[in-house]
Every structure is written in C-alpha cells, then in structure tokens.
Description:
By secondary structure, this protein is an alpha+beta fold. The protein has helices at residues 30-36, 39-43, 129-148, 153-173, 186-198, 205-212, 216-227, 231-249, 254-260, 266-277, 281-286, and strands at residues 2-4, 13-15, 26-29, 46-47, 51-58, 61-65, 68-72, 76-80, 85-88, 95-101, 124-126.
Amino acid sequence: MxxxxxxxxxxxxxFAPQGKPGLPxxxxxxxxxxARMASREIAxxxxxxxxxxxxxxxxxxxxMVDFExxxxxxxxxxxxxxxxxxxxxxxxxxxxxxxxxxxESHHADPTAAAWYPGSSAPTRWQLDARLQxxxxxxxxxxxxxxxxxxxxxxxxxxxxxMLCSMLMRLAIELPDASPTGTRLPQAYLDFxxxxxxxxxxxxxxxxxxxxxxxxxRTLDRACQQASGRTARDILDDRLTLEVRRxxxxxxRPFARIGAELGFTDPSNFSKFVKRNLGQVPxxxxxxx
Length: 288
C-alpha cells in the first residue's frame, strides 16, 4: 500500500504496492494490511498520496479521516483522497476490501462533483445488495489481474483501464448527494481550486482574486451562494485544516510549520492556531 517518507511535505505515505513493481492499482484486505503494520504505525496518523476505496465486507468499525470518525458496516463504501490524513482504529471482526491507486492511474471524471476538503461531495455510501455484488465483482476482476500482473505496458494499461471502468460505473450507479459543478458558481470552483495549488504561499483573498481575474466581491458572493460563508472563511478553514494535519502527523518544529505556510512570525502562527483551533500548537500535538 505505502511506505513512510519521513519528514518531507506534503505527502508522507506514497503508493508502493507490496511485491509487485510497476503495479498501477493494488487490491488488498484491510485485515491483511493491519496485520503487517507495526503497532506504532496503526496508532499514528498517516497522510496518503494516493486514492483509496474501502468496501466493508465484515463486522463494523470506525476509520478516522481528517480527524472525523467514519463509521463502517457491511456494504459501507468510503473514498479517501490524496492529501487526507487517516488513522486505522483496531476493531475485532471488522474487515474491508481496499483498492488503492496513485492519481496518475486514472483520469478524472469531468461529470463528478468536485471534491476538496470541506466540500459536501460524497465520500461515504451505503450500498444495496445489488451494487455490493457488482462492486465486489469489479474488485475481483482487478484482483485477478493483479495476480497475473507482469510489469509490461499492456498489463499496466489493462489494470488502469479496469480501474477507470469501475470508477465510471460507480459514478453512474451512485446517487450524487452533493452540488455538482454545473450547479456551483464557477467563481467558487475556481477559488477552491486555486486555494489547493497556492496554500503554501500564504495567499490572501485579494491576491487570489487578482490571480483569477475576479473581484473580491464576486468571490464573496460566490462563496456565500455555495456555502453560506465568506471567501475569507473558506480560505481560513482550508489553512486551518492543513495546520492541524501538519501538527498532528509530523514532528516538525512549530516554527518550521508556520514558515512553510507563510507565517514569518512564529507568534502570529500560534495566534492563528489558537484563534481557529481553540488551542496552542503544543496542546494540539500532545493530544494527537
């Protein structure tokens, strides 16, 4: 599934399939993954640089995703995106099938709802018996090709095509419970996208509006329409999530984290954390 890369930002766990060099998609069991993880790894938050699809097949349990509990029961399917922070929680009898793949292994679905931290794009579904059977069949196909896999262009292309087919079928089958791109203001979508690419530059709403070619009033209006919050609120929320991720899944000095995120004064960084998370950095890290 992945290996730790130590103290480098922004991704700490990269896609590294076990024993299959060149494998573009990996199918595995949650129980098998947990069994091969050290106890420290299980208890530690991980920030992943790849996509994960988990389908609960047995028992019930909870998986932490970006500090929120995600509850599983048979038929629950969850999508975890690159950059999110997760933590495995031990649950006896709980198991799930997992499909993991790096971003370059599939093409984005242009019709899907845009996902970004804090969006309402669906990441958890409760599948009915019919769809559970279909998803298991699609995963079975990927697993069979994984066993036969040889590190050749045609084998890689075949598995990537099967992955894309599964994702497109899921996009057709699953109800879209969130606003789609066609119903969200374009200015809002552009703003969310540029936040993701500019976050470590400590952007302001004014600088992002200028780069996008919008007025700040247009961005505020679009954000209010889409989320009921101002553009400044959206930007601060995303920066706060990034701060919390870095404080709790790395051991980097606080001053370094602040500097990476564009805070030139460590005291200003501490004030930002206190104002938005209710605690100072040392308190947040001690509770991780």
